[in-house]
Predict the structure of Flavodoxin-like domain-containing protein.
Amino acid sequence: MKKTGKLISIVTAAIFAAMLLISCGALEAKPPQADGERTTAPDAAEASAPDGPMETVPVETSAPSGILTVYFSCTGNTETIAGWIQEALGGDLFQIRTADAYPEDYDELLETARQEQEAGARPALSGRVEHMEAYDTVFIGYPIWWADMPMAVYTFLEEYDLSGKTVIPFCTHGSSGFSGTQEAIAALQPGAELREGIAVRGGQAADSREEVIGWLAGLGLEGAAAGTAAASGGEIRVRFSFDGGEAAAVLNDTPTVQSLLAQLPATVTMSDYAGAEKIAYFAEALTDEGAPEGYDPQIGDVACYGPWGNMAVFYNDQPYAEGLCPMGKIESGMDLLAALPEDASVTVERIG
């Protein structure tokens, strides 16, 4: 009995340790409870003192409407998304950094993050955004740690009043998506206009550029169209015409989109799938050449499901799916598309 009890204790401890690593979302890992950053141990520089002098940002901004991209990142995935946002829209970057360094050891970092969350801690930050009033739009990015934002992001949100500004979240995660963090931001910044964010799987972050650019194009920010068009290789617009109205979409310049354009104009039948998307098949299957392994679609996304070669327009949330590749975003008429009857006849044509 003593040996059995000891064996059970060892097994139990091992299982607990494994569960801790899996649920740690703290580094944007692949497991369900993880956030979006790799499961490898974070580099010490990324954990507490990321590359470059980013403690403050200037008053003047190169952004079309005063855009600031704020992010917290330990292993680089969230930082990658932040960089693409700035590349497409211009503006300034501000990295949230804690005054005290996080542990370099992976397990210790996870434990620190857990303890901070349980205590409702507000870690002190090193550096401030100078002249926050200069910005009209603030993107806020973070990994999902233990099904929540890192406590340092709470510190940031409680130090600034973003009333009157447009706030747009983005996160990297394991499989949980935003995990209620958009609602938390809305509660902390009730005077801000919260816009639709994007949640990117940490394991897919490096391959999610097209998805991010398509999301940005669909936000309709003033002055953003040229930037997202340049970032994606050119702006492409298509129109969906049907009985009762029309819708328009901005598409990315990708091999998948080019395989669609080669068949336009075309009249197709759009049917409902899973109560979340409208799908259509063209004369030839759309290619998924060069596409990521999959992604987490957002409402309004236009995508291709590679194994079937069809086009899908999402009108409800759907989880991450392998084989799904982003094509662009509906910019008008989404409500009309969502309300289409089964097997509706739709004409798709390029308009720009």
Q: What stands out?
A: The first helix runs from residue 2 to 23.
